[in-house]
Amino acid sequence: MDDLLATLTALETELHHPGATCTRERLERLLHPEFHEVGRSGTRYIRQRVIDFLADRAPLPPVVACDHRVERLADDVALLHFASHEVAVDGTHRHAALRMSVWRRTPLGWQLHYHQGTPADT
To answer: What is 2-119's CATH number, 3.30.160.150, 3.90.1150.10, 3.30.70.980, 3.10.450.50?
Structure first.
């Protein structure tokens, strides 16, 4: 289970753009064809909108994710839980959220199938 946690945490972290932007091609591989999301704001997003946003966005404040844990729901499905927040230029934390991601193992490897963020206290 530790290997699965490390793998999914690394894949999830790629989506936070730590130091480099994911290419559109990499996002196409990471996000399952049926991917959808409910963001921290409560807004629903479809796969193509998320890919367009992540591939084309300007640098934003760093995202810090922590407290990762994983539950295996089936041989090829896992639920990743974690908390996150952005770090503003002045060092303050903002946009804290509790997050859950459903990952599915496919012939292309683990792909993000669903993601949800819920506002949390900082």
So the answer is: 3.10.450.50
Q: How many Cα atoms occupy the beta-carbon half-sphere of 15 within 13 Å?
A: 19
What are residue 122's DSSP bridge partners?
A: none
43, two tokens: 């807004």
Pairing of strands 31-38, 109-119: parallel
Q: Could you state, in order of their start, the residue ranges of all structural domains in the chain?
A: 2-119
pTM: 0.90
- The string of pLDDT tens digits covering residues 37-68 is 999 999 999 999 999 888 877 676 788 999 99
The three-state secondary structure class of 54 is: helix
The first and second tokens of residue 97, run together, are 């959220």
Q: Give dist(CA 4, CA 12) in Å, integer.
A: 12
For the chain, give percent helix, strand, coil, nearest 5: 25, 50, 25
